[in-house]
Amino acid sequence: MAAAFDGSTRVPSRAIKPVLVLAFALTLGDASAARTNALPEQPGRRVILGTIVDAQDKPIPFVAISVSGVRANAANGATADDSGRFRLILPNHERVVFDARRVGFMPSRISLVAGGDTSVTILLLPAAGNLPALEVKDAATRPAGLEGFERRMMERKRGAGAGWFIEAKDIEASSPIRATQVVETVPSIYVRRVNTDRFAIYGRSGLGEECPATVYLDGVLVGGISDMVTGRDRRGRTVVTKDGEGAPIDMVIEPSQIAGVEVYQRGIFAPVQLQPNDPNAMRCAIVAYWSKHANSRTTSPRSPR
After folding, report:
1. Which of 26, 204, 212, 246 has its CA 20 to 30 A from that of 85?
2. CA distance 189 to 264
3. Which structural domains are found in the chain, ordered by start?
4. Closest CA to 217 of 137, 287, 305
5. Could you give the 3-state DSSP secondary structure of residue 131?
């Protein structure tokens, strides 16, 4: 049976003693307790100040208070603060019933008879049952630079910035079998087979000569012009050889794992974080791959198809 309290009852001051009374919900089968004290009445409305405590008389924060049968301010109730205190403002002095609920505690229902402003202390008892089990799944982590790629791509679509952008949907539509194949149709980019199982990405320098593009994956340098070694032949002519020619992008990411690619004809057009330190590389193309998830990259090299 719900307990009823009349906040307007007058008692000689020497006889006033705090009383803690258990209140049992009619339909919830729960237990609570309330201690009431009279407050000065405010005409036209009723204010209920309350504190939620546990069995050790410690405040319980963030308890949800919902009012039945009468409308409180804001949203038919209130929420206790971090000190367990709450405040209800009711539009009239009629009888009021409200519930107190919080995860881990038994819900309680309090009934106050018609009257003036009142203060109450409500006791919540811990719930006996166990909470349902939660399944924790490993959430895939987006690479830190992917947001920057998406921002630059939107700016390019609005006519600002530079670069050539390829989205995941474009890659899926073309069904490439290796990462280097994704950029084969980009203007000023050339993909060459440099040996039996390896491909290289090239751009063009300011002089119109082919040069190895600088390739990044999630902002990390994969390879480029810095792999080139310059020397001279027996006649004294300059000869450029490639040491392990071809950025190994095909070995570290599958096309299905690529979230997007941005390509810049020259390093000077690329964002600062993608500009190489090598001055020769600054005069050639920049190709930056971005993976869908930071943990989706291939951890061990594989042979390109």
Report:
1. 26
2. 9
3. 4-124 (2.60.40.1120), 146-291 (2.170.130.10)
4. 287
5. coil
In angstroms, how far is CA 262 from the centroid of its own chain?
Answer: 25
Run of H or E including 74: helix 73-76
Measure the N-to-C terminal CA separation of the chain; round to a whole number of Å. 77
- The model carries a pTM of 0.48
The tokens for 273 are 């974080």
Q: Phi first, then psi: give them for residue 104, nearest 5 degrees.
A: 95, -5
Those residues whose C-beta lies under 8 Å from the C-beta of residue 216, and which sit 6 or more positions away, are 222, 274, 286, 287, 288, 289
As to burial, measured by CB atoms within 10 angstroms (0-12 exposed, 13-18 middle, 19+ buried), residue 218 is buried
Query: Is residue 120 classed as helix, strand or coil in its secondary structure?
Result: strand
Give me the tens of pLDDT residue by residue for the chain, a chain 305 residues long: 444 444 444 434 343 344 333 333 333 334 344 444 444 555 678 899 999 999 888 999 999 998 875 554 444 688 999 999 999 888 888 888 889 999 888 898 888 888 888 899 999 988 765 666 767 665 567 777 888 899 999 998 888 878 999 999 999 999 999 999 999 999 889 998 887 778 889 998 877 788 899 999 888 888 765 444 444 444 444 334 444 455 678 888 899 999 999 999 988 899 988 888 888 888 899 999 999 876 555 444 444 44
Query: Measured on CA atoms in the order 277, 279, 283, 285, is the torsion positive or negative?
Result: negative
Shortest CA distance to 172 belongs to which of 263, 60, 107, 259?
259
For 146, the enclosing helix (H) or strand (E) is helix 146-157
Task: Please report, as a single letter, which amino acid is at residue 17.
Answer: K
Phi-psi sector, 136: left (phi>0), alpha (psi -120 to 50), beta: beta
Q: Both tokens of residue 177?
A: 């079998």
